[in-house]
Amino acid sequence: MFIFRRLAESDLEKMRAWRTAPDITKHLFTKPTITKEDQIKWFEGIKDGESYRCWIINYDGRDIGFCTLSDIDWTNRTADPGTFICEAEYRGKGLVKHIVYNVLRYGFEEMNLLKILGPIVAANVAPRISYEKIGFKVDGPFEEIKSGKAFDIFTVTFLSTDWEGMKGSIEYDVAKEFEGY
Ligand SMILES: CC(C)(COP(=O)(O)OP(=O)(O)OC[C@H]1O[C@@H](n2cnc3c(N)ncnc32)[C@H](O)[C@@H]1OP(=O)(O)O)[C@@H](O)C(=O)NCCC(=O)NCCS
Protein backbone atom coordinates (compact mmCIF):
# COMPACT_ATOMS: atom_id res chain seq x y z
CA MET A 1 0.00 0.00 0.00
CA PHE A 2 1.36 3.40 -1.02
CA ILE A 3 1.08 6.72 0.79
CA PHE A 4 2.64 9.82 -0.81
CA ARG A 5 3.42 12.39 1.84
CA ARG A 6 4.40 15.94 1.01
CA LEU A 7 8.04 16.52 2.06
CA ALA A 8 8.17 18.08 5.54
CA GLU A 9 10.94 19.59 7.62
CA SER A 10 10.98 16.42 9.77
CA ASP A 11 12.04 14.42 6.66
CA LEU A 12 15.11 16.51 5.89
CA GLU A 13 17.80 14.44 7.61
CA LYS A 14 16.52 11.27 5.96
CA MET A 15 16.44 13.09 2.61
CA ARG A 16 19.99 14.31 3.15
CA ALA A 17 21.21 10.73 3.73
CA TRP A 18 19.36 9.51 0.62
CA ARG A 19 20.51 12.40 -1.58
CA THR A 20 24.16 11.84 -0.74
CA ALA A 21 24.21 8.02 -1.01
CA PRO A 22 26.63 6.99 -3.81
CA ASP A 23 24.14 4.61 -5.48
CA ILE A 24 21.69 7.52 -5.83
CA THR A 25 24.13 10.32 -6.76
CA LYS A 26 26.28 8.43 -9.25
CA HIS A 27 24.20 9.51 -12.26
CA LEU A 28 22.82 12.78 -10.89
CA PHE A 29 24.05 16.35 -10.81
CA THR A 30 23.53 16.93 -7.11
CA LYS A 31 26.46 17.84 -4.90
CA PRO A 32 28.17 14.75 -3.37
CA THR A 33 28.02 16.39 0.06
CA ILE A 34 25.12 18.37 1.47
CA THR A 35 25.34 19.94 4.91
CA LYS A 36 22.42 20.16 7.31
CA GLU A 37 22.36 23.93 6.67
CA ASP A 38 22.37 23.39 2.87
CA GLN A 39 19.40 21.08 3.24
CA ILE A 40 17.39 23.50 5.38
CA LYS A 41 18.15 26.37 2.99
CA TRP A 42 17.08 24.20 0.03
CA PHE A 43 13.83 23.26 1.79
CA GLU A 44 13.03 26.91 2.56
CA GLY A 45 13.33 27.63 -1.17
CA ILE A 46 11.07 24.81 -2.37
CA LYS A 47 8.51 24.25 0.37
CA ASP A 48 5.75 26.38 -1.20
CA GLY A 49 5.63 23.93 -4.14
CA GLU A 50 5.56 26.68 -6.75
CA SER A 51 8.30 25.29 -9.00
CA TYR A 52 9.24 22.04 -7.22
CA ARG A 53 7.11 19.43 -5.50
CA CYS A 54 8.43 16.47 -3.57
CA TRP A 55 6.74 13.54 -1.87
CA ILE A 56 8.12 10.88 0.45
CA ILE A 57 7.00 7.46 -0.81
CA ASN A 58 5.75 5.30 2.04
CA TYR A 59 5.23 1.66 1.05
CA ASP A 60 3.64 -0.77 3.49
CA GLY A 61 4.56 1.50 6.38
CA ARG A 62 8.18 2.21 5.40
CA ASP A 63 9.62 5.34 3.80
CA ILE A 64 11.43 3.90 0.75
CA GLY A 65 12.32 6.99 -1.28
CA PHE A 66 10.88 10.09 -2.84
CA CYS A 67 9.49 11.42 -6.08
CA THR A 68 9.46 14.89 -7.53
CA LEU A 69 7.98 17.17 -10.12
CA SER A 70 10.60 19.85 -10.68
CA ASP A 71 11.11 22.82 -13.02
CA ILE A 72 7.35 23.36 -12.91
CA ASP A 73 6.43 25.82 -15.65
CA TRP A 74 2.89 27.07 -14.98
CA THR A 75 2.79 29.05 -18.23
CA ASN A 76 3.51 26.12 -20.51
CA ARG A 77 2.15 23.60 -17.98
CA THR A 78 5.17 21.30 -17.96
CA ALA A 79 7.27 19.64 -15.25
CA ASP A 80 10.25 17.28 -14.98
CA PRO A 81 9.68 13.92 -13.22
CA GLY A 82 12.04 12.31 -10.71
CA THR A 83 11.67 8.89 -9.09
CA PHE A 84 14.01 7.66 -6.38
CA ILE A 85 13.68 4.29 -4.67
CA CYS A 86 16.41 4.95 -2.12
CA GLU A 87 16.10 1.83 0.04
CA ALA A 88 17.90 -0.61 -2.28
CA GLU A 89 15.96 -3.70 -1.24
CA TYR A 90 12.83 -2.13 -2.73
CA ARG A 91 14.37 -1.80 -6.21
CA GLY A 92 13.87 -4.52 -8.81
CA LYS A 93 10.44 -5.39 -7.39
CA GLY A 94 8.27 -3.64 -9.96
CA LEU A 95 7.29 -0.76 -7.64
CA VAL A 96 8.43 1.98 -10.01
CA LYS A 97 5.39 1.79 -12.32
CA HIS A 98 2.97 2.19 -9.41
CA ILE A 99 4.92 5.20 -8.17
CA VAL A 100 5.15 6.89 -11.57
CA TYR A 101 1.47 6.31 -12.47
CA ASN A 102 0.45 7.97 -9.19
CA VAL A 103 2.64 10.96 -10.02
CA LEU A 104 1.31 11.17 -13.59
CA ARG A 105 -2.26 11.09 -12.28
CA TYR A 106 -1.50 13.91 -9.83
CA GLY A 107 0.42 15.94 -12.43
CA PHE A 108 -2.22 15.73 -15.11
CA GLU A 109 -5.42 15.59 -13.07
CA GLU A 110 -4.61 17.77 -10.04
CA MET A 111 -1.99 20.16 -11.45
CA ASN A 112 -3.51 20.28 -14.92
CA LEU A 113 -0.13 19.82 -16.63
CA LEU A 114 0.07 19.24 -20.38
CA LYS A 115 3.47 17.55 -20.56
CA ILE A 116 5.80 15.78 -18.12
CA LEU A 117 9.30 15.52 -19.52
CA GLY A 118 12.91 15.45 -18.52
CA PRO A 119 16.45 14.35 -19.29
CA ILE A 120 18.03 11.09 -18.13
CA VAL A 121 21.77 10.46 -18.27
CA ALA A 122 22.30 7.64 -20.80
CA ALA A 123 24.39 5.64 -18.35
CA ASN A 124 21.43 5.56 -15.94
CA VAL A 125 19.72 2.60 -17.60
CA ALA A 126 17.09 1.62 -14.99
CA PRO A 127 14.99 4.83 -15.11
CA ARG A 128 15.16 5.06 -18.89
CA ILE A 129 13.89 1.51 -19.40
CA SER A 130 11.39 1.86 -16.55
CA TYR A 131 9.93 5.09 -17.99
CA GLU A 132 9.78 3.56 -21.48
CA LYS A 133 7.86 0.52 -20.19
CA ILE A 134 5.50 2.84 -18.32
CA GLY A 135 4.64 4.59 -21.60
CA PHE A 136 7.01 7.58 -21.86
CA LYS A 137 8.37 8.41 -25.31
CA VAL A 138 12.16 8.18 -25.21
CA ASP A 139 14.32 10.27 -27.57
CA GLY A 140 18.08 10.36 -27.94
CA PRO A 141 20.83 9.98 -27.12
CA PHE A 142 21.86 13.63 -27.40
CA GLU A 143 25.22 15.02 -26.39
CA GLU A 144 25.05 17.47 -23.50
CA ILE A 145 27.76 19.58 -21.92
CA LYS A 146 27.69 20.19 -18.18
CA SER A 147 30.53 21.77 -16.20
CA GLY A 148 32.70 21.51 -19.32
CA LYS A 149 32.15 17.74 -19.62
CA ALA A 150 30.35 15.97 -22.50
CA PHE A 151 27.96 13.13 -21.87
CA ASP A 152 24.89 11.56 -23.46
CA ILE A 153 21.32 12.05 -22.32
CA PHE A 154 17.93 10.72 -23.36
CA THR A 155 14.74 12.72 -22.93
CA VAL A 156 11.56 11.07 -21.66
CA THR A 157 8.16 12.62 -22.44
CA PHE A 158 4.58 11.87 -21.40
CA LEU A 159 1.67 13.99 -22.69
CA SER A 160 -1.65 14.64 -20.95
CA THR A 161 -3.33 13.19 -24.06
CA ASP A 162 -1.32 9.97 -23.55
CA TRP A 163 -2.66 9.85 -19.98
CA GLU A 164 -6.26 10.41 -21.10
CA GLY A 165 -5.85 7.58 -23.59
CA MET A 166 -4.47 5.02 -21.21
CA LYS A 167 -5.65 5.86 -17.68
CA GLY A 168 -8.75 3.67 -17.99
CA SER A 169 -6.83 0.59 -19.04
CA ILE A 170 -3.76 0.50 -16.76
CA GLU A 171 -3.60 -1.38 -13.51
CA TYR A 172 -1.62 0.12 -10.66
CA ASP A 173 -1.83 0.55 -6.93
CA VAL A 174 -3.58 3.88 -6.52
CA ALA A 175 -2.09 5.55 -3.43
CA LYS A 176 -4.27 5.32 -0.34
CA GLU A 177 -3.28 8.93 0.35
CA PHE A 178 -1.56 11.42 -1.95
CA GLU A 179 -0.98 14.62 -0.06
CA GLY A 180 -1.46 17.64 -2.30
CA TYR A 181 0.13 21.08 -2.30
C1 LIG B 1 14.81 4.42 -11.39
C2 LIG B 1 14.27 3.47 -10.34
C3 LIG B 1 13.15 4.16 -9.57
C4 LIG B 1 13.67 2.24 -11.05
O1 LIG B 1 13.15 1.35 -10.09
P1 LIG B 1 13.60 -0.17 -10.07
O2 LIG B 1 12.92 -0.85 -8.96
O3 LIG B 1 15.09 -0.21 -10.13
O4 LIG B 1 12.98 -0.67 -11.46
P2 LIG B 1 12.68 -2.16 -11.84
O5 LIG B 1 13.84 -3.03 -11.47
O6 LIG B 1 11.32 -2.53 -11.34
O7 LIG B 1 12.67 -2.05 -13.42
C5 LIG B 1 11.54 -1.62 -14.13
C6 LIG B 1 11.58 -2.30 -15.48
O8 LIG B 1 12.76 -1.89 -16.21
C7 LIG B 1 13.59 -3.02 -16.49
N1 LIG B 1 14.99 -2.66 -16.24
C8 LIG B 1 15.47 -1.95 -15.20
N2 LIG B 1 16.82 -1.83 -15.32
C9 LIG B 1 17.15 -2.48 -16.44
C10 LIG B 1 18.39 -2.74 -17.10
N3 LIG B 1 19.55 -2.26 -16.60
N4 LIG B 1 18.37 -3.46 -18.24
C11 LIG B 1 17.21 -3.94 -18.76
N5 LIG B 1 15.99 -3.74 -18.17
C12 LIG B 1 15.98 -3.04 -17.04
C13 LIG B 1 13.14 -4.10 -15.52
O9 LIG B 1 13.39 -5.38 -16.04
C14 LIG B 1 11.67 -3.81 -15.36
O10 LIG B 1 10.94 -4.35 -16.44
P3 LIG B 1 9.59 -5.21 -16.17
O11 LIG B 1 8.62 -4.23 -15.53
O12 LIG B 1 9.18 -5.64 -17.53
O13 LIG B 1 9.98 -6.32 -15.26
C15 LIG B 1 15.39 3.01 -9.36
O14 LIG B 1 16.34 2.26 -10.07
C16 LIG B 1 16.07 4.15 -8.63
O15 LIG B 1 15.54 4.70 -7.70
N6 LIG B 1 17.33 4.50 -9.09
C17 LIG B 1 18.14 5.50 -8.40
C18 LIG B 1 17.62 6.93 -8.53
C19 LIG B 1 17.57 7.42 -9.96
O16 LIG B 1 18.55 7.41 -10.68
N7 LIG B 1 16.38 7.87 -10.34
C20 LIG B 1 16.12 8.42 -11.64
C21 LIG B 1 16.11 9.91 -11.57
S1 LIG B 1 14.92 10.47 -12.75
Arithmetic mean of pLDDT: 95
| Gyration radius from CA atoms, angstroms | 16 Å
Instruction: Report low-confidence residues grouped into runs of 5 or more.
Output: none
Which molecules are bound besides the chains? coenzyme A
What oligomeric state best describes the polypeptide chains here?
Answer: single chain
Beta-strand portion reads 25-35%
Helix tally equals 6
Say which CATH homologous superfamily is assigned.
Gcn5-related N-acetyltransferase (GNAT)
CATH class: Alpha Beta
Explain what this protein looks like in three dimensions:
This protein is an alpha+beta fold. It has one domain: Aminopeptidase (3-Layer(aba) Sandwich). It is 31% helix and 34% strand. It has six helices and eight strands; from the N terminus they run βαααβββαβαββαβ. Strands 6-7-5-4-3-2-1-8 form an eight-stranded mixed sheet. Strand 3 and strand 4 form a beta hairpin. Helix 4 crosses helix 5. The mean pLDDT is 95. The site of coenzyme A has 20 residues, from strand 4, helix 4 and helix 5.
